[in-house]
Amino acid sequence: MVYHKSVTDLSTLPKEKVIRFLESFDTVVTDCDGVLWILGVPIPGSSDVLNKLRDLGKKIFYVTNNSTKTRDELVEAASSMNYVINKNEVISTSYLTACYLKSIDFQGKVYIVGSEGISQELDEILIKHEGVGPDVVTSFSDALDFTIHSEIKAVVVGMDKDFSYRKMIKAATYLNNPEVLFIGTNTDEQFPVGGTKIMPGTGSLVRAIECCSLRKAVIMGKPSTFVGKALVDEYGIDPKRTLMIGDRCNTDISLGSRCGFQTLLVLSGVTSLSEVLELKKSDSEENKELTPDVYLRTLGDLMPFLTDQ
Ligand SMILES: [Mg+2]
After folding, report:
1. What is the DSSP letter of 250?
2. Higher confidence at residue 7 or residue 161?
3. Which residues are noted in the entry as substrate-binding (predicted)?
4. Confidence tier at 281 by pLDDT (50, 70, 90)
5. I want to staple 118 with a disulfide (CB 3.0 to 4.6 A). Which of 94, 132, 183, 256 is the partner?
C-alpha cells in the first residue's frame, strides 16, 4: 500500500485537534533563519509563539546550520528580537564542530575556510586554527606561493564571505593528505533571502572543496543526525515528544524524520507550499522523509491557539 502523509495546514484544523497536537510534545527544536528571522530581520509573531511555548513549560532548543556566529552572538541577536534564550539552548554548527573535535581528542591545528563563528568556538576549547579572513591570489603565477603548515590536521569549511581560489588551493592541498580530517558545517545550498536574488549557502562552498580535493566532508549540521544524537545523548530529550520546526524540508524536516521527531514546516523561508504538495504526492521513501507532518504559513499563525492555554 502506498503511504501518503496527511500533511495539512495546522491552522485550518479544529481547535481541539491543534490543542491535542500542542500537548503531544514537550521539547521544541527550532531552526532559526527562515523560521524566527530572515537575514537578521524578525519574522512577525514568531517570538510570541516561541516564548509562549516556553511559558507552557516546553523545552526549547535553537538549532542552526549558521556557522558565522558563536552561541553568545546568537543569544545576543535573538534576545534583541525579543526571544527568551539561553546559551545552553543554542546548537550551532560552529559549536557542533568544536564538540566533535573535542570528542575525538583532536590534536593539531585547523585550517578554516569560514568565519569567526568557528574560530571563536575553537578558541573556547583551545584548538589552534588559521585561515579566517581575506586571502586571494593576484595571478596564477603566484597561486601556489604559500607555505604548507604540517601541523594542520583538519580542514573545516563553513560560511565564508571571503571564499576564494587561494582558499580552495590551500584546502585541497591539506586534504591531499588522507590523514587530514575534512569537516563541513552544513550542506544548505542557498540562504532564504526572499525576492529574486540568490545567495549561495555553505553547501555550495563545501561542494567546491569536495570537488577540488576529491574528498567527502563529514557534515555537522542538519540533516546529519549528529545534532539529533547530541540532543538525545547530552540533553536527554525524548524523540517521540519532540517537535522539529523548520523552513527547509531537505535539512530541518529530514533531520526531524530521521530522529523520530514530529515535524512542522513553516512557509516563511526556503520551502514553498507547491514543493510540499509535490512531496505529499510522492511515493518514494526518500521524499517521505522530507515531508512534514503539518505546516503553517508562518509560526505566528499558531498564536490564536495558544492564547487560552
Ligand atoms: Mg532555515
Report:
1. I
2. 161
3. 222
4. confident
5. 94
Decide if 33 is catalytic. Answer: yes
Q: Tell me whether residue 33 is annotated as binding.
A: yes
Residue 223 preceded by cis peptide, ω within 30:
yes
Q: What is the DSSP string of 42-57?
A: EPTTHHHHHHHHHHTT
Dump pLDDT digits (tens) for 288-300.
Answer: 899 999 999 999 9
Which grid coordinates are listed for 14?
479544529
72 annotated as ligand-binding: no
Catalytic: which of 31, 135, 160, 252?
31
| Domains, the chain, with CATH or none | 8-65+223-306 (3.40.50.1000), 95-219 (3.40.50.1000)
Is 31 annotated in a binding site? The answer is yes
State the DSSP string of 129-192.
Answer: EE--S----SSGGGTT-S---TTEEEEEE---TT--HHHHHHHHHHHTSTTSEEEES----B--
Share of the chain above pLDDT 70, in %: 97
31 is catalytic: yes
Distance 90 CA to ligand 1 centre (A): 14
